[in-house]
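ok posting inputs for the guanosine-5'-triphosphate job
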Amino acid sequence: MRFLILTPVLLLAMLLAVWPEHALFTALPFPLTAWLALAFVASLALLMRQTDWLYWLAFLAGHYYAVQQGLQRPISEPAVALLYSYLPVLSALWLGFLVLLPRPPLLTKAGIALFVCSALLPVCLLYLPLPNWQDGLPDYHWLLQPVLSASPLSWLQATVLLLVVAMWLALLSYRNWPKPMLGQLAVLLCLTLFYLWLAQPELSGWATLIASSCLLLTLALQMLQLAYIDELTQLPQRRALIGHLNRLGKKSAVTMLDVDHFKKFNDTYGHDVGDQVLRLLGAILAKQRGMTAYRYGGEEFTLVFHHANPKKLKEQLEQVRQQVADYPLVVRQAGRPKDSDTGKKQRSSGQKSGGSKTVQITISLGCAIRQPGEKPEPLLKRADEALYKAKKKGRNCVVLTSS
Ligand SMILES: Nc1nc2c(ncn2[C@@H]2O[C@H](COP(=O)(O)OP(=O)(O)OP(=O)(O)O)[C@@H](O)[C@H]2O)c(=O)[nH]1
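and the output
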């Protein structure tokens, strides 16, 4: 789902590669469309309190202005060629800087300074004495030569862009492909496409429009996540479950699942360790095939099945129960040194710290097979009653009911 964010850039890249003379490229009234897109996404980001995106939007706006003012003439003109040499490098470096450094909240002095810098940095290039700098760099002149004769992209630009994209991809995979970073990568990719196909009509407008659309998609996915995904377990939560139950087919079943003696567990090991257990249980449930797992609330989870075969249901649920019961949970015990110095001293003197201990948890499961025409509420209620029976039976078991 998260890779949806990159779809607009990929579509633009494909169109540029396969059909660069497509009428679409000249169909929109630029620059108005690009400015409207930037203003629209900025208003939404403000409305949704996702002000972090305004740094990227400010940079996109500054960049678009610089391109409109400085890159609309033939690249054979020295001033245009110089701007073309420095603007992509500056863009890649600034976007890399924005990703890597902790960004202050917008409405602080540092935040406002960062916002203004993001917007004005590309614009400043229009007024800097670039030809003087060029004269000062004779030894590195080859860096400004094109990599390919067909594209004006220079060695310097290609190296910086490649380094920043490589850093981005490494960071993305290290951090498990978070959505915001995919949106930020989309901005860089859009600008890269623009520099690669510089001669394409209206491409600066399209690149800005597509980059704004990618940020809009990221915002939408973030909002969807806030509304539907439980932060602790990363499973969809009750609101998503209700939506799913309203679309249930004739043959389906719902299971309520609850951690046994969880209050005692919390009291013994602490609420934080209890949270870790719920996170882990969420990960185990998310991996199960043939069912969709939800966090219902507290230590209760719901599993939804799209079949009504009692034998198969029992087998699947027993498997889940067994998997959880067999899972060794490593718990840090109280008495563990709080700082590493004390820990080192304890280890060197052979003293035993609190260390960790392996414990097991169990779950009880109550499953109800859907009756013809049964509404979600009574179905959930029956699953809850089955869960209650499982608890009464002694816990760590499955109770299945079809009526
Ligand atoms: N750590 C943690 N605990 C939670 C969370 N949500 C609910 N709980 C705890 O889960 C416990 C549920 O306790 P009970 O409903 O009495 O059930 P139980 O102790 O699991 O006993 P049985 O269900 O009868 O086996 C309470 O102590 C809640 O505080 C959570 O998000 N994190």
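notes: The two ends are 37 Å apart (CA to CA). Residues 203-228 form the longest helix (26 residues).
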